[in-house]
Amino acid sequence: MAQKDNPVGAGLTLGLGLGFYSALPLLFGWTVAYFVVLDSAAPFWQVYLGLVGAVVALGMLLGASSAFRAGRSARRHERERKEQARRDELARAYDGASRAAADAIDTIESLQGWLATARGHAADAGAHFRNGAYSPFWSAIEGAYAALGGYHRAIQALQALPGAYAGHAGEYRRGGGETPLPPFPSSVDTAVLGAAAGTLLRRLGSLVYEAQRDPVFAQIWEQRRTTAAVVAGFASLEHAVGRMGGAIAASVHDLAGTLEHAESAVSAAVGEVNASTRAVAATVTSASAESLRLQRVLNERIAAVERQLTA
Predict the structure, then answer these.
(1) I need a surface site. Which of 22, 82, 185, 207 has the fewest CB within 10 A?
(2) For the residues 155-164, what does the mean pLDDT come to?
(3) Against a cut of 0.70, is the pTM above it?
(4) What is the distance between the alpha carbons of residues 61 and 14, in angstroms, rounded to a whole number?
(5) Angle (deg, nearest 10), helices 134-159 and 44-131
(6) What is the dihedral of CA 221, 223, 224, 225, to 10 degrees?
(7) Where does the chain cross the membrane (predicted)?
(8) What angle do CA 164, 165, 170 make, to 5 degrees?
């Protein structure tokens, strides 16, 4: 501990310092008082040393008192600093968990947009095929697979979010956080994600096959199948047509495994309640009710997405 926070050390330092610097002035003053003013018979040196001792004692008291107050203030500031640091950590953990949950919901809700776009291009491709519009047909096919590529990337992006959420949620609860965290959409039905894409891919595959049986459509296909990639993650349109189904199926399978393992981690992280939370029953009841409300809202949003995907 620093001397300024040590009452004994600070008292000795100040007391001895005052005694040292006041010794000569006291000697001069006492000499004048003794011989000129008082003309006393009191022992000269005993009184002088008593005065010096009194100054030393006074300095020790003042130094100790000052150091005690400084130490108490320093300890208070340290407690406040630690509490502020704890609150900052809680805020960062809460924001991290909230951001992971929001990103997951946004990503899941984006799936219906990607699939709707792909379905629109597929419908256009069917119309162009019936009307014998060769180049527009293949442009629509490219658009459909490009949208399915976005669908695929969204599923891949979703895989990283459960772990991030569980980590932040665990930090928040271990730090004493009591505010209900936004729930993570770990209950999303991955079978719906795979089935919705699979249905559209079978339709697109049938269209491409029928077009390749037509000499003119097939000729344009040969011109476009190896052109620069139009679908992110695939070297060419031909690769996208041939491999998109397997890529989406693999990503959906990986996502299902990730969510299965992450759901227990998320539940454990969110379910951790510290001693201060357990001590306040009303807070626990209120937090539980709010958590249930948030979960119901989330379930409704996920159900709406799943209905759109299977429509």
Answers:
(1) 82
(2) 88
(3) no
(4) 9
(5) 150
(6) 70
(7) 12-36, 48-71
(8) 105
